Each structure stands twice: as C-alpha cells, then as structure tokens.
C-alpha cells in the first residue's frame, strides 16, 4: 500500500470520528504547549545565561586569581604565602599563555616572621631625600612588567607606558589620582623624579631603623581608573616591577595573592579556543601551586578563572534546570499520554469494521499498523502544531519572566542585555516524537490485538 | 482449483465446543459456479471463509492451485486474498463515505496500484456493470441493488481467480436478486470460479456444482444444470 493511500485512509478514519479526533488533538495541544513552554523556559534560561556570561566576558574580560592561601588545621587558619618556586612556576606558565593574559600582578604582604613574633613592615617613598610619601600597599600593583600591558598609550597621562624591557628595573609609575592628591598636599611629583623606597620596621617608627632602602625612578603617570578591575575595589595608584621588588627586599615581603586579567579583542577572536586556553591555563598553574587544605584535610585548587568558574556554575545550573524540566515534562507526558493513547485506541476500535473489510480484501497486519500509526501521528502532529501557535502566543509571557529574572541576576555587572527567547526547531519535533513514542507504547498492546485479530471475528462483529 | 481435504472447524473448547465443519473434503473447480447450499447454522459460511482464506481449519488441509494455504503466514494469506479472491457480502460492506469509485478501487489501493491505473480499472468494471453514472456518488446514496453491484465490481476489479459470494441476494428484492445472480453467472462465464453461499435452492440452480451442507457435513454433487449440459 502506498504511503499516500495510507495517509488518505488515515485522514478518512479520523474524519469519520471527528469528535474523538478533536478531543485527542485538544489534549495533545494543551499538553504539548505545557511541555514546550516548560522546556522553552529551561532552554531560554540556559542560553541567556550563557549569552550574558559571554557578553560580560566580551565587555569586561576575566580575572584569574589565586587568593591568600589559608590552610585550616585544628580549627585555626594559618596563612601560607606563595613560595618563590611557586611564583616562578606561575610566572613561567603565564608566559606560556600570554595570549590570554593581559596583566599579571602579585599582592604582597609586609608581615615577616622573626622567631615567634610577627614583625610588621611598611614602606614609604622619599622624593629627592626630602619629602616622604606613604603609599598604601593595597593600592600598589606589583606587576610582572613583561606581562603587564596597558592597552593603549593614551592611558598614560605623562611619561611613557611600561614595556617588557622595564622588567627587573627600578622604575615606578604612579596613578593620576594619587599624583593629584599629593599636589593638593603640596608635593609635586614629576616624571623623572628619583625616589627611594624604604622598608621600615613598624615598631621602630618611621624614618628610623630602616631595614632596606632602594632608589626608584618615576617613569610615568597613568590614568588611575585604567587599571581598575572587578576584583580590586580601588584603582591601583602605583605600579612597579614585582621581580625587582621581590629581589631587592628578599625575605621581607611575602607573596599573598596572584591576580591576572584578560580582556578579549573587540572582534575576530576564536571564543572556543580562548575558553579552552583559559581552562588549560588555570589547570597548568594549579599543577605547580600547592592547594589550600581545609579542616578535613581536603585539598582545594587555589588558582581559578572567573569566567571559567561562571561558566561552570552556569552549566551546572543549566543541567539542574534542564534535568528538572525534563523530569517535569516526562511526568506531564506520562500523565496525559494515557488519555491520548485511549482516544487513539477508541478511534481505531470505531474503525474496526473498515479495518476488517480491508483485511478481507488483503490488507496485512503491517498495513493495519501503518494506518493506525499514521492516524495517531496526524493527531499528534496537528496537536503539536497548534501547541506551537499557543507557544508563540505565550512567548511574551516567557520573555517578560526571563527579563525580570535576568535583570536582577546580572544587575551587578552593569551590562545592557536584551533577553532572547527563540523556539528551537528541535523542540516541537522532539515533543511530537516523545508524544508519538509514549502514545505508541501505551496503545501498543491494544492496537496489536486489533491488527492481529482474524478477519472473521472482525467481519462477524461487524455483521 | 481449490481442494479441501478432511477439513474440520471447531469453535471453542471443551463442552462448549462447536463442530462447524466435520471432515469436509470438497473441490472447487476452476471456472465453475459452485453453490454451497445449506440452512442457517449448517456451516456454509464457515466453509466459504476457509475456501477464501478468511479463516483457517482446525484440522485438514486446503490446497489452492497446489499451494497449501494452511501452511501460509498471516501476511502471505493476506496477499493470497488480495491477489486471488474477491468477496461479495450479504451486507455489501461498502464504506459509506467513500465514492463508488474509491470503494471499487479498494483492493487495488491495498495492492499498491497507482491511482491512475486503479481508477482506469475501476471505471472499466463499473461500466461493465452499468454503474458508470454512479462513479462519483457516495456509497450511501445508492439503492440496495446498486450497492450489491458495486460490491461485485469491487470483487472483480483486481481480476481474481475466484469470487466468493456470501448470500449476495439476502438483502435484495427478487428483481435485484435475479440481476445479481445473472451477474455472477456472467462472471463464471468469463472463466472465473464463483462460489455462492446460499440457503435458497433457486439460486443454487444457477450453479454447476452444489455442495450440500448439513450440521457441518458436506457432500458434493453436480447440479441439474450441469447434468443437462453434460447430456447435451
């Protein structure tokens, strides 16, 4: 039997049982709308979350971090500074991945262990041996200058930008805000000034008992806001080379944190390659850095990439949401498909006479099944098609729900984002397929019996 | 030729079992008009169903042109029915919402014949039966006699070897009944085997061979008509 004829007979049978057909189609429409709306919410949530993350990444880049390492033992935390060896490993690894790192900075602390007593140090600057400047250590960026690139010379107000050749040199750059503050206080800091950096023993008082003094040259004044990142609440006001600083004040300062930043180009970059490289980079750094140990002795990797972390959370949330959505959809489907299968069986049963007649004329079991399958498929496809129409009508509702959800979720990042809700082609196809599969499974036994029923009993029932 | 050998048909089991056919051995000769004559409940329709492969015997064998039908699969039997047999039922069994043309073309639709070819063949048969003006009418718009003629057209459209008619005049008035019987005779004269199930002795007189059936026991004899023919 040709497919066109199977289809025509299926339509004829459906038409002969109009009320049953309409009932089935209505049930399929309502259920498929519900299922597709649910899935659409899940898909839209996932996709928009990924899109927002990517948008934030494109606009603001990402931060790589190794926070202060505090191992926990016996209920007390002990700070474990990063060793020189770890610093070297991080630096070398970062150089390997320099295409996805724009800046490399370390945060240092001034605590120094001496016997059983902590002795605190700070540092100050003295310009030409006269004026003393007291620089807040947290506003200083100890940078690896060969990796520390400010994008655009225009960000330097005076002097010149640092370059890789400034590595391991006694050059220093100050932020414009800080220079302005000094000027207001009567200290006129200029490019080319020689200043001396002093590490001072805190309990000896400033200006006396200097532990170490190193001369630096001011090479430029940069735009303070240019180095502000999400992680550093204040813009850094002083940039100097980390390698030189740590070398000069060896043993007096310890490395507390690492921080790197990357902003991708505005256009034409391979997102997937960059994302993969970011994952590889964090993995490679962690391979040479001791983990953080919690009270149970469990080790946690200390170095992470904010974008990779965000994506990991996004994917985890998406997986959970999609799993919930799928479970809900299957439950709805299972609850409803029984009634759909029943109406299909009843429709077929009402056509028993016609089926019997066709069997008498040579229609085989396969032919009966094909007609019945075609009938249920037509009803399901019609129902799902109407479901799509209903879904389009519901789309503004989904859109507004998503918009308000995302507005509150991503308010912190200050990105302008328009929520998109598009119905993927596979959604109605998958819904129809699932419907058909479940309906077929539910009605299989009854339809099989009808198909296998011998001609005589069908004919005699008819008679 | 269809040959039934020692065929039993038992419906049900145990004490409630009904022995519809008992050790039936008959032959349906090619190109002959065979009537199965018996009272209601005698087993004549059961016999026709077995001859037409609509039903299978409990015991015994059925050979159609040397092929053992009792050994065929359900699908092979369906193909056999589609290619070899044509049925005419007492209640016509036309699909009321189909046109006359579509009703007649039904065996060809099942056989997978193209629309063009099946329409040509259906129209040809309908013309032969004088129904050309009813081609596009719905089956439920026809009279009883017309319905039975459409049913006969449907039984002939795929050019079967054997036409089986189960009480085809049962729902018709005497004039239409006579017309139908004449048609069946005509079909036989065209070289087809015709099997008529009837309780009416008058109708059976048209046959060449008569299978008398009573309480499931069948005996075969030549009809008077055949005897006359042989004498001539």
Explain how this protein is built.
- The complex is a heterodimer of chains A (463) and B (232).
- Chain A is α+β, with helices and mostly antiparallel strands and 463 residues long.
- Chain A has two domains: 3-55 and 312-462, no CATH class; 61-307, no CATH class.
- Chain A is 51% helix and 20% strand.
- Chain A is elongated, with a radius of gyration of 35 Å.
- The model of chain A is unreliable at 113-120 (pLDDT under 50).
- Chain B is α/β, with parallel strands linked by helices and 232 residues long.
- Chain B has a single domain (2-231), classed as Rossmann fold (3-Layer(aba) Sandwich).
- Chain B contains eight helices and ten strands.
- In chain B, helix 3 (100-111) crosses helix 4 (115-128).
Describe this structure in a few short sentences.
By secondary structure, chain A is an alpha+beta fold.
Q: What count of domains describes the coordinates of chain A?
A: 2
User: What spatial form of chain B do the alpha-carbon principal axes imply?
Assistant: globular
> Taking Cα atoms only, what radius of gyration of chain B do you get, to the nearest Å?
18 Å
List SSEs of chain A in N-to-C order.
Answer: HHEEEHEEEEEEEHEEEHEHEEEHHHHH
Report the mean per-residue pLDDT of chain B as an integer: 90
Mean pLDDT across the residues of chain A is 83
Shape of chain A: elongated
Instruction: Quickly give the structural class of chain A.
Output: alpha+beta
Measured between the Cα atoms of the first and last residue of chain B, the distance is 25 Å
Q: Give the DSSP E fraction of chain A (strand runs of 2 or more residues).
A: 15-25%
Give the total of domains of chain B.
1
What about the largest sheet of chain A?
A: 13 strands, mixed
Biggest sheet descriptor of chain B: 6 strands, mixed
* SSE string of chain B, helices as H and strands as E: EEEHEEHEHHHEHEHEEH
Uncertain stretches of 5 or more adjacent residues of chain A: 113-120
- The helix content of chain B, as a percent range, equals 25-40%
